[in-house]
Design a protein that fits this description.
Rossmann fold; eight-stranded mixed sheet; cupric reductase (NADH) activity; oxidoreductase; about 20% strand; alpha/beta; NpdG
Length: about 230
Amino acid sequence: MTSAAAPKKDPWDLPDVSGLTVGVLGGTGDQGRGLAYRLARAGQKVIVGSRAAERARRAAEELGHGVEGADNAQCAQRSDVVIVAVPWDGHRKTLEGLREELAGKLVVDCVNPLGFDKKGAYALKPEEGSAAEQAAALLPDARVTAAFHHLSATLLSDPGVESIDTDVMVLGEVRADCETVQALAARIPGMRGVFAGRLRNAHQVESLVANLISVNRRYRAHAGVRLTDV
C-alpha cells in the first residue's frame, strides 16, 4: 500500500516574524534609516547601528516607534536578523570587523556595488561575484541572504506614504532563511517578498539598481520592481 504524497507547501505561507529583533547596520544612512523606520512602523523591534553609538541613538530618537540605537557591534549582538545597509566602499571593512558578532545570525545584505561617472550609475562586480557573496565569504558562520535592493529611500522615509507597492527579491542558500526575510518584507504594507534564487544570482539583482536610478532620473520617479504572474 502506497502512502499519499505530502501536499506541497504554499509558497506564500510564511513564518511569523513579529517577535524577531531586526538590526540595521548603516541605520543612520538614507537606506538604512528608511528600512528601520518602515519595519518599526509595522511593529517590528528594530535597533539601528552605526560606528558611533551616539549617532545611532540620535537617529533612533528621530525615527521613533520604539527604535533603539547602538554601535554596530551591540546592534549585531542584540539582533536576530541583521540588515547590512552600509555604503559599498565600507562593506568589506564593516563585515570583517563584525565576524564574531554576526556568527549564527541571519544576515540580509542589501548593498548595491555601484560606480558613478558623467554618464550616470553603473554596476560594479566584486571579485566574489556580488556584495552578498562577499558577505558570505567574510561571514562563514552567518546565514547570508540578499534582499531590499530596489527600494526608494525617499519613499521609505516619508511618513505620508502609507503603502510601498513593490516586490522584494530575496536570494539565499537556505529556503527557510529566505522565507523569514520574505515575511519581514511582507510586514511593510504594499510589499511582497519573492524568492529569486541562490546567492550566485545576486549580482544581476544588485546591478538592476543602476537601471532604476536612470529610470528615476528620466521620469522624476521613485520606481521599484513588481513581478508579474506570481
